[in-house]
Specification:
With 164 residues, the chain is an all-alpha fold. The protein folds into 2 domains: 53 residues, no CATH class; 111 residues. The chain is built from 7 helices and no strands. Helix 3 runs antiparallel to helix 4 and helix 3 runs parallel beside helix 6.
Length: 164
């Protein structure tokens, strides 16, 4: 017998939803009763009201600009990361030269680099694209490089037997 989708969802996620409601209620009450100042952590109802009141500005102006920054940064990191990952896989000299720099780049907090990007690129699209690029570049390079390094002969033979 197939269960109804609502029953299945409530069985699987009921505890999560109850905990979420409890957290929101405690959060709301702690702000309303003055335990937490609203300028430090606004109540969920205040956040919702501000979102509804500013929906036009957020959706009409800020969302397209943010999406543009994210798409450009991700595309740049994908293209650069895939090319560099393939290059490091094919050339051990390139791997030995660049892989340590790629690893070291992850030790610098992005919050420390953001002001430098603003100084270099100004308040333009490119300072935000640089932050997105640095966030996404490392996982792409390492994922491509490690994926290619771990693709052993067994996978190649399997693909050849399947007509690749």
């Amino acid at each position: 017998m197939k269960r109804a989708p609502f029953k299945e969802g409530s069985r699987r996620y009921g505890a999560f939803l109850l905990l979420l409601l409890l957290i929101l209620a405690v959060w709301e009450a702690s702000v309303r009763f003055g335990y937490v100042p609203s300028f430090i952590l606004p109540a969920p109802s205040s956040i919702w009201t501000a979102l509804v009141q500013n929906a036009g500005l957020l959706l009409g102006t800020h969302l397209p600009a943010t999406l543009e920054e994210v798409v450009v940064g991700c595309l740049m990191s994908l293209v650069g990361g895939i090319l560099l990952g393939i290059g490091m896989h094919l050339s051990k000299a390139l791997e030995k030269t660049l892989y340590p720099f790629i690893i070291i780049s992850q030790t610098i907090p992005l919050i420390a680099l953001s002001p430098i990007f603003i100084m270099w690129f100004g308040y333009s699209l490119w300072s935000k694209v640089a932050v997105v690029f640095l966030t996404a570049f490392f996982p792409v390079v390492v994922g491509v490089y490690d994926g290619l390094a771990k693709s052993g002969g067994a996978y190649k033979e399997l693909l050849l037997t399947m007509g690749a």
